[in-house]
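INFO batch 0412 | record 1 of 1 | parsing
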Amino acid sequence: MITKAGSAKWMGGLKDGKGTVSTESTALKDQPYGFNTRFEGQAGTNPEELIAAAHASCFSMALSMILGQSDLTPEEISTTAKVSMDKDGEGFAVKKSHLTVAAKVPGASEEDFMKAAEAAKAGCPISKLLNCEITMQATLA
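INFO prediction complete | emitting tokens
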């Protein structure tokens, strides 16, 4: 089993408070976040953005692995995930993650690429973690 850690510190109330988020690897170290970065479009990070980055990177690696199982090596996989959070009862919930992927895969047919992309969408560990609708637009260059 692989275990990775992230941490957050929050100080103050919801709207006037401030927090920092860090990762075990220190790729993120005390990065600021707050109500304004999450709900008001201010510069800085937020939980949904971090989930989107995790989903895009996990999907890209899974797609590379699945293509490799068919002896196809991608030159490039470029993925963006857009995570949508909506009102859910009295609170909020992540309801959707939309993946947009463009890839250069020498020797891959459109059919083989789409089959691999769908398998990666369903099978990457972060897709399995998310309890939301996952949609995708995939393009083979």
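INFO post-check: The two ends are 36 Å apart (CA to CA).
INFO record closed
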